[in-house]
Design goal:
It contains twelve helices and seven strands. The chain is an alpha+beta fold. It has a domain of about 150 residues: Histidine kinase-like ATPase, C-terminal domain (Heat Shock Protein 90). The strands form two sheets. Strands 2-4-5-7-6 form a five-stranded mixed beta sheet, covered by helices on one side. Strands 1-3 form a two-stranded antiparallel sheet. A hairpin with a 5-residue loop joins strand 6 and strand 7. It is elongated, with a radius of gyration of 42 Å. About 20% of the residues are buried. About 5% of the residues have low confidence.
């Protein structure tokens, strides 16, 4: 008994837990208002419909105005709210029965003509057609958005794959560069030190293939870095000097070299990249010509552009292959290009360098009539060049 009395006393004297300082408990009324806030337009429209129904009932001579106000307001509210199909059908049925019921009672009392009652199902049908058309447009829009999202995901995936490919080419070119250089040096030493002609010939073949492989890795690295911001180091470059220097480098190849029109033109570009592009065009011309054929190099101004052109009298390119010769690893004539050491990367390199300079590459060729490749680079005024 004493223990129970003590427990009762403890319960009586136990302090009531206080709410934390600064905490406010939302009253039930506020919670209810927050829940009803999204439905406020619907509630306001329901009140508006109710008032107009009363007006239809009381003002039989003017009931057309509240009747049309109800249906117009239903159309406006649906346009903003876009209810789901089931609430829309229920709301349409309720409005139809309410307005039709009032008119039906007035027809029975002789206050309205029976023809007026036919307007209710017609207006309801018109609203239903509008709902069907709106939902069809909404479904089409959603399908279009879904398709656009899918295209965007595919585009992002393609960009990611292209970036991975570019990074792989850069890494592979860097990693292959050192062992190829070391192996090429040893092959050249073996070729010079060999007393056996067969061993020297084999070492010469190995050195040639390694040198060719090193050129391949360098070109792959150049193509992989074409999209980098630091791909170009811009400075005024004399286009006529590029052509003269190129002829001096390639003049020992047994071809009939010709210097055509040489206009004084200055471009804002990367000298090393432009030299690589011009060498690629000359290498392509050499690969598709024989000793005794003519290769002509020109520079001319065409509007605000400098055009560096390489023309050869070689075998030419079939018209069916002109659209694909700028693709990577594409050869117009695989046998001759392979013998000349081509990889199918020279013309893509020219295109990449020209586009990096905000220029382009053009080709004019036909089978048996030679080819002309033109690299178009924006020129700069003399004031900027100086």
């Amino acid at each position: 008994m004493r223990t129970q009395d003590r427990d009762r006393e403890i319960q009586r004297t136990a302090p009531v837990p206080l709410a934390p300082r600064g905490a406010r408990l939302a009253p039930p009324v506020r919670t209810s208002l927050e829940r009803l806030r999204p439905m406020a337009p619907d509630i306001a429209w329901a009140v508006f419909v109710g008032l107009n129904l009363v007006a239809m009932r009381l003002l039989s001579n003017w009931q057309t105005v509240p009747f049309l106000a109800i249906w117009v307001s239903l159309t406006v509210v649906y346009g903003f709210r876009l209810w789901r199909l089931q609430p829309t059908i229920l709301t349409l049925a309720a409005v139809t029965l309410a307005t039709g019921g009032i008119i039906f009672v007035q027809v029975l009392k002789g206050q309205q003509d029976a023809d007026y009652l036919a307007e209710v199902p017609l207006i309801a049908l018109m609203f239903l057609v509008m709902v069907w058309h709106g939902r069809r447009r909404l479904a089409a829009t959603q399908e279009r958005l879904t398709a656009m999202e899918q295209v965007q995901r595919i585009s992002q995936e393609n960009l990611r794959l292209l970036e991975q490919q570019r990074q792989f080419l850069q890494d592979a070119s860097h990693e292959l560069g050192t062992p190829i250089t070391v192996a090429l040096g040893h092959a050249e030493l073996i070729e010079r030190a060999a007393t056996d002609q067969a061993v020297a010939a084999d070492a010469r073949v190995v050195a040639g293939e390694l040198a060719r492989l090193r050129r391949l890795t360098n070109r792959l690295l150049l193509l992989a870095s074409a999209g980098n911001p630091d791909f170009l180091h811009l400075a005024p470059v004399s286009a006529d000097s590029l052509v003269l220097d190129a002829l001096e480098r390639w003049g020992n190849i047994p071809r009939r070299w010709r210097l055509g029109e040489v206009a004084e033109a200055t471009v804002l570009g990367d000298s090393d990249r432009l030299v690589a592009a011009l060498d690629a065009l000359l290498e392509n011309a050499v690969a598709h010509t024989e000793p005794g054929d003519t290769i002509e190099v020109t520079v001319r101004l065409e509007g605000w552009n400098a055009v560096l052109a390489v023309t050869d009298s070689g075998c030419g390119i079939p018209p069916t292959e002109l659209d694909r010769i700028f693709r990577r690893f594409t050869r117009a004539q695989p046998g001759r290009s392979r013998e000349a050491g081509g990889f199918g990367l020279g013309l893509p390199i020219v295109q990449a360098i020209a586009e990096a300079h905000h220029g382009s590459v053009r080709v004019h060729s036909a089978s048996g009539e030679g080819s002309t490749f033109e690299m178009v680079i924006p020129a700069v005024p003399d004031a900027i060049a100086s």
